[in-house]
Design goal:
By secondary structure, this protein is α/β, with parallel strands linked by helices. It contains eleven helices and eight strands. The protein has one domain (6-277): Aldolase class I (TIM Barrel), CATH 3.20.20. Helices cover 50% and strands 15% of the residues. Helix 8 (190-199) links the parallel strand 6 and strand 7 (204-206). The protein binds zinc ion. Zinc ion is lined by residues 83, 138, 179, 207, 229.
Amino acid sequence: MALERAVDILKYADEQKKCVIGFDAFDYNSVKWIIDTAEEEQIPVIMMIYPGDRTLIPLSTFAAITKDLAKKVKVPVALMLDHGPNFDTVMEAVRGGFTSMMIDTSHLDFEENVRQTAEVVKTCHGLGIDVEGELGHVGIASRESDYADADGYTKVADALEFIERTGVDSLAIAIGTAHGAYVSKPHLDLTRLDEINRATDIPLVLHGGTGVPEDQLKAAFGLGINKLNYATGYKLKSFDVAKELVERGEIRPRLSDLLMAMNQPMKDFVRGIMRMAWPK
Ligand SMILES: [Zn+2]
């Protein structure tokens, strides 16, 4: 199938009261493991790339691979730039053929976040591209205060104003998660999530899913989280699987053999996460 827009997949997820995983991939194999699993499970998926990984693969090459693999399957696949840092990087992804964007200027003050996000939304909507914004501080999991301190969490009134003034199609919010590996058990502010969900009518997104207890994630999916970003966990797992296969010493010492041997364990891992968020 041709690529779909993330917002259309998210609307479908919202109707189904389910959650789509936005996976951060970084090369042909990491994209293929995800799309093949999505097809086997018939669970829609959003393929993403983190701008920092552009040194590994240009955005246009990543887009071409995703588009080609999506064409070969029936399950809906969207292609989104993860954490676009500014207008120029988003435009690079637009030229590369991405169907959906995230602009993350959440580290700036509210007014500046509104201004830069609205500028991206205006241009992207003119091109038929949907946009995810971010409001509140989803920080770094190695700093406990980044996720345990409620001062940085998204406020309900701010979320309403942000959506109205920017026109974003989906919104990443801060309710107690952070990026990377947590140094202590995170506790999601589900009451706040419920309030934001009731007050707004667009799909909500949770970043920093790696390491959040499953019961908390499932509760969040029932309260309006329709997209879970999964980046660190996927990268850690692919490293661990490779390491284990090498240490077991059963494969020929060739990178091509290693990648082929990684296929099944990586797909099984992706399957587990997809089924958790999209139960049949
Ligand atoms: Zn993120």
